[in-house]
């Protein structure tokens, strides 16, 4: 069974910048999806911001095992109801890969619960991406470091929660460092943040970067059934307890009333 993967692309820079169009003539979303489809275990399609419901309908998300998110210039245009829809799917078990400027996306900040802020500089610097967790599945098949000749600098501090695992740390020509590959779990879903991917540079033509993306999709995939009751908070009556118990003391809840939220 293939991993059903959806690539969300903002598709704004491709419309406004000749530099980006030259690098990604069919859009960054298309380039990423094409690179994922090289792996026979992945079946990738793409959607964009401009589509109705950003292409992320209830039906599309229900048929998505892993969502890949690239955004930068139009985070605020993503509808809040779509963000909540995605968050619920992650809690249910859908994997999520957040790329580059997606650190400021509504969905990443929603799931992290923090500002997700950082330092940055756009100067075409060399980036040295060190693999610091050599046995992690996302690092499979990689050398000890990935060298990118030109990238945008992101620097610490990065105001995200402490990750469950860190796979990569970046060094930049200007001297800054950054935690560039972070693993989280929210509900039943796995989340991976991967830093490289500035639109003005050919990052998504680098084979090592594309290997990371394919590995990350397979890492984030949850083959189990969706935990569709993840947001429910059912009351268990005394007579339904697994072991016999007697009710005692006062209660603020009426019989059968839903929990307070």
Describe the protein's architecture and organization:
The chain has 261 residues and is α/β, with parallel strands linked by helices. 22% of the residues lie in helices and 28% in strands. The protein contains seven helices and nine strands. The chain has a nine-stranded mixed sheet. A hairpin with a 2-residue loop joins strand 8 and strand 9 (189-194). Helix 5 (80-92) crosses helix 6 (106-112). The model has no long low-confidence stretch (mean pLDDT 96).
**Overall SS class:** alpha/beta
Order of helices and strands: EHHHEHEHEHEEEEEH
Low-confidence stretches: none
> Share of helix among residues?
10-25%
Mean pLDDT: 96
Strand order of the largest sheet: 2-1-3-4-9-8-7-5-6
Total strand segments: 9
Write the layout of secondary structure elements.
Elements: E1 3-9, H1 13-16, H2 18-23, H3 28-36, E2 42-48, H4 58-62, E3 66-70, H5 80-92, E4 95-99, H6 106-112, E5 119-131, E6 145-155, E7 165-172, E8 177-186, E9 189-194, H7 207-220
Parallel strand pairs: 1-2, 1-3, 3-4, 4-9
Antiparallel strand pairs: 5-6, 5-7, 7-8, 8-9
Helix pairs in contact: 5-6
Give the gist of this structure.
This protein is an alpha/beta fold and 261 residues long. The chain is 22% helix and 28% strand.
Q: Notable features of this structure?
A:
single chain; 261 residues; alpha/beta; elongated
């Amino acid at each position: 069974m293939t991993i059903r993967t959806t690539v969300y692309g903002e598709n704004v820079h491709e419309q406004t910048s000749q530099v980006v169009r030259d690098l990604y003539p069919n859009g960054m979303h298309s380039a990423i999806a094409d690179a994922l489809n090289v792996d026979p275990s992945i079946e990738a399609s793409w959607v964009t911001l401009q589509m109705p419901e950003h292409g992320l309908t209830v039906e599309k998300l229900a048929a998505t095992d892993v969502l890949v998110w690239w955004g930068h210039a139009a985070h605020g245009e993503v509808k809040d109801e779509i963000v909540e829809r995605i968050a619920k799917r992650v809690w249910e078990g859908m994997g999520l890969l957040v790329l580059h400027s997606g650190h400021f996306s509504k969905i990443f900040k929603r799931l992290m619960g923090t500002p997700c802020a950082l330092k940055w500089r756009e100067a075409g610097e060399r980036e040295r991406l060190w693999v610091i967790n050599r046995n992690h599945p996302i690092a499979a098949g990689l050398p000890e470091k990935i060298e990118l000749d030109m990238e945008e600098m992101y620097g610490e501090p990065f105001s995200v929660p402490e990750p469950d695992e860190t796979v990569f740390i970046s060094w930049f020509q200007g001297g800054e460092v950054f935690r560039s590959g972070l693993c989280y779990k929210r509900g039943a879903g796995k989340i991976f943040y991967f830093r490289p991917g500035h639109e003005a540079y050919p990052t998504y033509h680098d084979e090592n970067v594309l290997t990371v993306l394919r590995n990350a999709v397979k890492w984030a995939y949850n083959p189990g059934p969706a935990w569709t009751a993840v947001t429910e908070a059912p009351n268990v009556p005394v007579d339904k307890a697994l072991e016999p118990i007697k009710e005692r003391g006062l209660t603020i809840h009426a019989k059968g009333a839903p929990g307070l939220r």
